[in-house]
Amino acid sequence: xxxxDVTAFGKGVFGDKRxxxxxxxxxxxxxxxxxRGDGVVTYDNTTGTNVDVLSINKMFKDGAAVDAHVNAEKTxxxxxxxxxxxxxxxxxxxxxxxxxxxENWNNASWNGxxxxxxxxxxxxxxxxxxxxxxxxxxxxxxVVQHTAGLIYRNESGxxxxxxxxxxxxxxxxxxxxxxEDIMADGSIALRSLEDPSVIVDERTESGYSPDHWSKRYIGxxxxxxxxxxSSINNKAAYLVSExxxxxxxxxxxxxxxxxxxxxxxxxxxxxxxxxxxxxxxxAAIQAATDLYGSNSAExxxxxxxxxxxxxx
Length: 312
Ligand SMILES: CCCCC[C@H](S)C(=O)N[C@@H](Cc1ccccc1)C(=O)N[C@@H](C)C(=O)O
Ligand SMILES: [Zn+2]
What we know:
- The chain is an alpha+beta fold.
- The chain has 2 domains: about 150 residues, Elastase, domain 1 (Roll), CATH 3.10.170; about 160 residues, Neutral Protease, domain 2, CATH 1.10.390.10.
- The chain is about 35% helix and about 15% strand.
- Strands 4-5-6-8-7 form a 5-stranded mixed sheet, with helices on one face. Strands 1-2-3 form a 3-stranded antiparallel sheet.
- Helix 1 packs across helix 2.
- The radius of gyration is 20 Å and the shape is globular.
- The mean pLDDT is about 95.
- The site of ligand 1 has 15 residues, from strand 7 and helix 2.
C-alpha cells in the first residue's frame, strides 16, 4: 500500500507539542512532508531511518527529530511566503535533516546537501534542533550557496555566517538573539544581532564579538573569524531594521519587512563568491535603491547603518 500524507504530532526537545506533516506507510509513520517542494525529510542519523513508530498516544517520540522537521517546514514557508523562493535552490530541492549526529556534538551544520544537528553535551548546548533559529541558520546557508555562494572564509565567510544569522533572526522572529533556546551554560544566547558586545567570545582579543569594523578579528581561527566578524554585519542589519545610535551615529530603522527584502535582494542579485564587507554595503544600498528609491528612508537607513559599524 502506498504512503499517504498525514498531519502528525510530536513533542519537541523541550516537551512542547508540535504539529507537522508526515506520512503513514506500511502501518508505520515517517517524517516525510510531501506538501513542501520535493519534500521535507528528517531522519535519525544513528539508525539511518526516517521511520518513527507512533507511540500509543499517537505522538512521535524523538524530540530532536520533531523539532528539526518543524524547523525545516517553518523555514521553507518563510522563504516561500517572504520572497517566493521554493526551497534552497528555488527549484523545490528536498530539505533533508539528520539528528543525533556525532557524540554530544555541540554544533549543527549545512554540508551543501543537508542539515545536521548535534545533541549538544548538556553543558554548552542542549540538543541543537530545539532552536528554530538553528535550523533557519543552517537552511539559509543552502540559500547562500545557491545565490551569491559566499566563500566560507575571511570577510565573505563572515557575510555567509551573517546571512545565516539574519535569516535565522527573521524566521525566529520574536527577538534578535541567536541560540537563546538551546544554551545550557546559562548565557543568554550564542550571538546577539542587537548588541554583539554582550556575548563573550574568547576567540577574540577583547573577549567580545565585534560591533565595529575597526574591532574585526584578523587571524586564522574560525576560518578567519567567520562566526566572529559576522557580528559586524549582524549589527548593521539590526540597525537597518530597528535603528538606534551606535558610536555616535544615529540610524532611523525601517522595520523587519523592508530589511529582509533589502538583504535578500542584495544576496540574490548583487553579492558574489568573494564579496567583502564594503561590497555588502554597496549591494545593500543598491538593493534598497531598487526597491524603495534613491531618496528613501530605507537607503538612508542602510547608509547610516554601515557608517555606524565603520564599513565604507
Ligand atoms: C562543521 C562545523 C560547523 C560549521 C558551522 C555551522 S554552519 C554553524 O555555523 N553552526 C552554528 C550552529 C548554531 C546556530 C545557531 C545557534 C547556535 C548554534 C554555529 O553558530 N556554530 C558555532 C558554535 C561555531 O561553529 O562556532
Ligand atoms: Zn553557520
